[in-house]
Amino acid sequence: MAISFLLDGERIDLETLDPTASVLDLLRTQLRRSGTKEGCAEGDCGACTVLVGTLEAGPKVQWRALNSCIQFLPMLHGKALMTVESLAHDGIPNPLQACMAANGSSQCGFCTPGFVMSLHGRAIGATGCELPVEDVIAGNLCRCTGYGPILEAAQEVPVLAQDDAALIPQLAEIAGTPASGEWQGRRWFAPRSSDELAGLLREHPDATLVAGATDVGLWVTKGLKVLETVIFIGDIAELAAIEATDEALFLGANVRHAEAHAALAQLHPDLGELWRRFAALQVRNAGTIGGNIANGSPIGDGPPALIALGAQLVLRSIEGTRTLPLEDFFLAYGKQDLRDGEFVAGVRIPRPAPGTVIHIAKLSRRFDSDISAVCGAFALTLEDQQIASARVSFGGMAATPRRAAACEAALVGAPFTMETMERAAETLREDFTPLDDVRGSSAYRLEAAGNLLRRLWLREQGGAVSVLDMEALDG
Length: 475
Hints:
- The chain has 18 helices and 20 strands.
- The protein is α+β, with helices and mostly antiparallel strands.
- The protein folds into 3 domains: about 1-175, Ubiquitin-like (UB roll) (Roll), CATH 3.10.20; about 240-350, Uridine Diphospho-n-acetylenolpyruvylglucosamine Reductase, domain 3 (2-Layer Sandwich), CATH 3.30.465.10; about 355-470, 2-Layer Sandwich (Enolase-like, domain 1).
- It has a 5-stranded mixed beta sheet with strand order 2-1-5-3-4. It has a 5-stranded antiparallel beta sheet with strand order 10-11-16-12-13. Strands 6-7-9-8 form a 4-stranded mixed beta sheet, with no helix packed on it.
């Protein structure tokens, strides 16, 4: 069965396709849209940024900036696509392009189309448009260091009109239909319901599940891995639910990080800040809550924070559902408690009790768009300045995201003082023996993890604990 998508309102059907060919390859080699560039082929530089529109309730078309280098072709099914060539009409640049050309925003020009697409998305109300412009383009790298004029152009261009009325009926015709195919003996499926997914997994228990492809994409572009059977799950609407109650926040596995940000920030500001730094906007627009968990990475940013808050993971198969504490899902490096035929359906995060002391911090070599060296998360309850309970979780310290049992034991029942934090920091050597790697030595990780405990106490006393905090106090 073909996939169908819209490019500038024109329907394109692909009858046969390599399921792990990228959208970028299609644009450059078949559609001859060479304005979209390949800079890194791993979703890091933003030179390949395009806008992809999805039909959502309203009805309306919700546009998102995405890295086309790690988006596989079947992920375009039922969507609308916009490239840098879409913006000019009759040879006349749109207002953003004209402004950037006039103020010298482009130097060598290689990265410019990606910047244009990210900023055009901001101008037309794409996901993330409410963010400061610096955050919108954090995933676009300029080797010529021309950021000043680019930022100025973004601030000068007003909101641009985007008329999607003609796209809505066309997308309605193709968006809800499942798709599947075969390419050189390899099978792929794009189901549209959880029941359909559960059935496919029973038939193909070794299939690779792909939601946003922000990690699996690199298996192909960098690792040159051949995926024999692929199930694309990113468009299963029932897995994209966000449900907030007085007791908890439930996030379906397909909730993209960009959409999860506001709901998580309402649980606690530290969660909002962690998710704001969760890669770049293009990655947050693709990557999902469930994918970040199911991936099982020891340096994934989400699990340590969710474990500290007592999150429960919901798994589903054709036999039904089961729920387990999130920390119990991670068994060993690359091994999760996921039975044949099961998939991550969502995660339930209890709403923190009033007065809970929460501190979540990510340490990385680069502030933006970088992987954690250490990610620490702490949730303490106090009674008369005594620590009544403690949940302490770290990423980057072991083969899996993990709670620090000895540290928690040192905290519970002790007074909430710096001396207690110092003693608890020392016990981290009993909990973890971190590896040395390019992101940090074992000694650095242990020292940094202990410093996060100290920082928790200092912040609760109203002190400035980072450059950003000091700037906030000065302001």
